[in-house]
Amino acid sequence: MITVVCNLTLDGVMQAPGRVDEDVRDGFEYGGWATPYSQDAMGRVLGQRAGRYGGMLLGRRTYDDFADFWPKQPDNPYTEALNRQQKYVVSSTLTDPEWVNSHVIGVDDIAKLKAEQDLIVLGSGELIRSIPDLIDEYILLIHPLVLGTGRRLFGDLHQPLTLEHFEPTTTGVVINTYRPAAA
Q1: CB 99: neighbour CB atoms within 10 A?
Q2: pTM of the entire predicted model
Q3: What is the mean pLDDT of the chain?
Q4: Span 103-126, pLDDT tens digits
Q5: Segment 156-168 mean pLDDT
Q6: Is the CB of residue 138 less than 8 Å from the CB of residue 4?
Q7: Which residues contact 105 (CB under 8 A, 6 or more apart)?
Q8: Per-residue pLDDT for 155 more than 90?
């Protein structure tokens, strides 16, 4: 099973939810937009699913950002869990990842890896849009915010989804779980 976990604004923006300098491509000025809302939401999502996934499936940009940030953080439960987690980076250019438990794979390797273990995708919009037929579940943390600009999760992808579960949080984020709709 492949599960996508993604922070989104009401208008579908996923770019740079965590930090001001996270992703400034195309002059994006709203980095860190999810932080004021995430206290309750992300803890619920990660806490409920802790230990469920065999590995993280990451695109190159997300991997580079995570690898530059998380190993440098003081000891905390998130850093420890991320360091322990197997990380599979989908890249045709990365050859020697330095972050512990990181492995480079090609997009053609994803189906085989999925058959061997459950995977979670964090961020990685380009990767998500390149493998919609392999994704089994989307957990979307939808924030009460409209940015009007920024990179969006689905772009021009057309994929009917079925809402399986929703959960409001104390900060106004709604955690929606979707699965691809039956054909």
Answers
A1: 16
A2: 0.90
A3: 90
A4: 999 999 999 999 999 999 998 999
A5: 91
A6: yes
A7: 88, 89, 90, 113
A8: no
